[in-house]
Design brief:
The chain is built from eight helices and 13 strands. By secondary structure, the chain is α+β, with helices and mostly antiparallel strands. It has one domain. Strands 1-2-3-4-8-7 form a six-stranded antiparallel β-barrel. It is globular. Bound molecules: adenosine-5'-diphosphate and magnesium ion (MG). The site of adenosine-5'-diphosphate has 19 residues, from strand 2, strand 3 and strand 4.
Length: 296
């Protein structure tokens, strides 16, 4: 691991591992900077190789959003293989955050490349462990999603690019939790929305109880470690899904919040010993107020 990669990773982990309030301040500082990142890749045609070695072409559309680890764009004219049941005209591609040096080129942030690689590997590992997770005493009773399902869009394809791994997923059509809470706070959510949030909170505990993730320590070049999985339940990862065809595609029995990503939090703010469900709801309020004040 290069010095730059290690520095960038340590920075990202320090931000994420600080207290929720400190993490929020860092987000406010860095998100506007990272917002530019998605625009570097917007509206271009690319030709690359997928994880099975097949050449594919694609066109990147408008940016849909970004977090601390990646940027998400609409994906058009994708020629790569897709599993059945996922329409080609409703795809997104998640790319690493990048910066441009005028006259020299566009470069992906090293921490972002590491996170993209991690997301691609983590996804299949978690889906393999669903039955175990469902057996946890913390798993929600009769959740909105079918047995064997996790409420997040599947990764449909992973592309090898000079900017790291690009991840193809289906679009989620819904209303983000932050938009829903914007006007009247968490108090304005319907009982079915609150129930759904509780189900995702319980899922977070069940994942920690039963699922393991496998990763390299960010601070050492060698060695791997297996650890209990800590879902990143931050409010900007949640979206309320109600359209019948979306519910069918994602295996939902009733309207539900879904996660945009099955991301891991390097620390443990959403575990029950640190935050009970009521505290989680207050945290959502606080998060949305701060984001609104910061203007995004
Ligand atoms: N499948 C999707 N469909 C529609 N919008 C998406 C999708 N995935 C992500 N987004 C948008 O992009 C934002 C960042 O995506 P996310 O995967 O959470 O990135 P990060 O890992 O950086 O937090 C989300 O908050 C959402 O607004
Ligand atoms: Mg996110």
């Amino acid at each position: 691991m290069s010095v730059l990669t290690r520095f960038s990773l340590i920075l990202a982990l320090t931000i994420a591992a600080s207290t929720p309030a400190e993490a929020l301040s860092c987000r406010e500082l860095l998100l506007p900077l990272f917002e530019r990142a998605a625009r570097h890749f917007k509206g271009q045609e690319f030709a690359w190789i997928d994880a099975n070695g097949k050449a594919v072409r694609l066109v990147t559309g408008d940016p849909l959003g970004n977090g601390m680890s990646g940027a998400v764009l609409k994906l058009e004219n994708f020629t790569g293989d897709l599993p059945e049941g996922y329409p080609r005209d409703a795809l997104v591609v998640k790319v690493p955050l990048a910066f441009r040096l005028p006259g020299i080129g566009t470069f992906a942030f090293p921490h972002s490349k590491v996170f993209q690689r991690g997301e691609a590997r983590l996804e299949s590992r978690l889906r393999e462990q669903v039955a175990k997770v469902e057996s946890s005493e913390f798993f929600p009773k009769d959740p909105a999603w079918e047995k064997g399902v996790l409420p997040a869009p599947p990764i449909l394809s992973v592309l090898d690019t000079p900017y790291g791994k690009w991840i193809v997923k289906p679009v989620i059509r819904g209303t983000s939790l932050t938009r829903l809470v914007d006007k009247s706070g968490v108090a304005g959510l319907t009982p079915e929305m609150k129930r759904s949030l509780h189900e995702l909170y319980d899922l977070t505990q069940a994942l920690f109880d039963q699922a393991t993730a496998f990763g390299k320590s960010a601070l050492s070049t060698g060695g791997t470690r297996v650890h209990a999985f800590k879902l990143d339940l931050n409010p900007s990862n949640l979206v309320w899904v109600t359209e019948p065809d979306q519910m069918r595609m994602y295996g939902l029995k009733r309207p539900s919040f879904m996660l945009f990503e099955l991301g891991e939090h390097p620390s443990d703010p959403y575990l029950r010993e640190n935050m009970n469900f009521q505290e989680f709801l207050s945290f959502v309020d606080q998060w949305v107020q701060r984001e609104a004040a910061a203007g995004y």
